[in-house]
Specification:
This protein is an alpha/beta fold. The chain has one domain: 3-Layer(aba) Sandwich (Rossmann fold). The protein contains six helices and seven strands, in the order βαβαβαβαβαβαβ. The termini are far apart.
């Protein structure tokens, strides 16, 4: 039976510069180009700064997914339920602050991803978001939450400390992480 309701994934954190837009952009691309399954995918840019929108505006070819900007709580609350039946996956890139826009997006999500960087200040900043996430779960009991640790060098003291600190929030840390490329790797020659 075909799925009648798209899955909404929000990417949120109250801190800027933790990789929200990068994670959202990579997820939307991965879902849209997965060869084993054809999916209708939508990227919702809820950040007035529009970083992920600007990023994809630079694409030299047609994108394999749809995009829209919904930057107010009221519009998100109205439009996400209307958009769900038309898409298999909707990725929402949230703005870097605790706001009614982030709350509206997270409350309607099936999955909330919280990217964090492995530094003491960045890990402490997540504590501002956890109460908002818990409130959203009070409204939407089906909401699943996961931390995504960006730029984490595995098997280090810092890696263990970050994972231990995040475990205190009682939100699962995804077992995979977005790591640093080896310094010897050259992307552009």
């Amino acid at each position: 039976m075909a799925q009648t309701r798209g899955r909404v994934i929000t990417v949120c954190n109250t801190k800027g510069g933790v990789g929200k837009s990068t994670l959202a952009g990579n997820l939307v691309w991965a879902f849209a180009t997965q060869r084993s399954r054809q999916r209708r995918v939508l990227l919702v840019d809820a950040d007035p700064q529009a970083s992920v929108t600007k990023w994809f505006d630079l694409a030299p070819a047609e994108l394999p997914f749809d995009r829209t900007q919904l930057t107010t709580a009221r519009v998100l609350q109205q439009q996400l339920p209307r958009l769900r039946p038309s898409y298999d996956v909707i990725i929402v890139d949230c703005l870097p602050m605790q706001s009614d826009v982030t709350a509206a997006a997270v409350t309607q999500a099936d999955l909330g991803l919280v990217p964090v960087l492995p530094s003491p200040l960045d890990v402490l900043a997540y504590s501002e978001l956890v109460p908002l996430l818990r409130q959203a779960q009070g409204v939407n009991a089906a909401l699943q939450l996961r931390f995504v640790i960006n730029q984490l060098a595995p098997n280090t003291v810092l890696a263990r400390e970050v994972q231990d600190t995040l475990a205190d929030a009682d939100i699962a840390v995804l077992p995979t992480y977005v790591g640093l490329l080896p310094r010897t790797c050259r992307i552009l020659r």
